[in-house]
Amino acid sequence: MQAPFSLRIFVADGDPDGLRIVERSNWVGRALVFPRAAWAQPSVATRPELQQTGVYLLLGPREDGEGDRLYIGEGDPIKPRLSDHHTGIKQKDFWTRAICFVSMGQGLNKAHVQFLEANLIRLAKQAKRVPLDVENKKNETEPTLSEADRADMQVFLQHMLGMLPVLGVHAFEQPPQAPAASAPELTCKGKGLLARGYESTQGFVVKAGSQAMADLAPSLLNHFAGTVAKRQELIDLGVLAQQGSAYVFTQDYAFSSPSLASSVVLGRSSNGRMDWKDAQGRALKVLQADA
């Protein structure tokens, strides 16, 4: 079980959708969260944190409009890099919000942020929850750090990863290794296939080895573009791999809802609260009502 922590969020310009400064209890790190539209405003442009060395995330909609896209970068300092991504030679059109992390203690150096960047890219690739910008698809090599610096950056990284879901970023989350004691394993069956999964705090987790239909129902294709796009994304990312006449989950994967999970598995529109059942045949809806 992870240790509890608290976050202090300061709305720097009085606009809850504008610049927010986020600090974690008992940690030297600090996060700046702001929309792209605020980049040129003095409340953002003059922040001293952006003159420091740090690591940053750029998030925005994918080209098909279905979900987020992510770019992970580092800067020494951050501000010139973000300026370049805004209107410079490395401009990126997709991003609509940024999250920057710096240290208010001794400060981060170039090797520190390269370490953080490399590990964030590695974790995002493993989780396969959000497509990475093409520049992040190359293999990232960690810089050489002393044993002490490496230990410090591992702690810094873990604090960042704990904060990001609270800030609405789930790109790095790995599904829990096993369901909680109160979450029984459930199955979803259809036309000779079987999928297994369970509820978690991250969503509904479908387990590795579960099967999914190879063909999609016309009704899903015609009326549920988001589900079709999510399924194709999982195929492109390698989460779903074709095996014989069906697809198979190559890893545990957390969906935002049981219905999205069962729709991807069954290849049709599905009410996950009815189609996921326990060993006694009781639907998830019944189990939730009895809890």
What does this structure look like?
Helix 3 packs across helix 4 (147-163). The protein is elongated and about 60 Å long. The two termini are 22 Å apart. The strands form three sheets. A six-stranded antiparallel β-sheet has the order 1-2-3-6-4-5. Helix content is 30%, strand content 24%. The protein has two domains: 7-163, no CATH class; 186-290, no CATH class. The longest helix has 18 residues, at 110-127. The protein is built from nine helices and 13 strands. By secondary structure, the protein is α+β, with helices and mostly antiparallel strands.
How are the SSEs placed, and which strands pair?
Elements: E1 7-11, E2 20-24, E3 29-35, H1 42-45, E4 54-61, E5 68-75, H2 78-87, E6 97-103, H3 110-127, H4 147-163, E7 186-190, E8 193-200, E9 203-206, E10 211-213, H5 218-223, H6 225-237, E11 240-243, E12 246-249, E13 253-255, H7 258-266, H8 272-275, H9 284-290
Antiparallel strand pairs: 1-2, 2-3, 3-6, 4-5, 4-6, 7-8, 8-9, 9-13, 10-12, 11-12
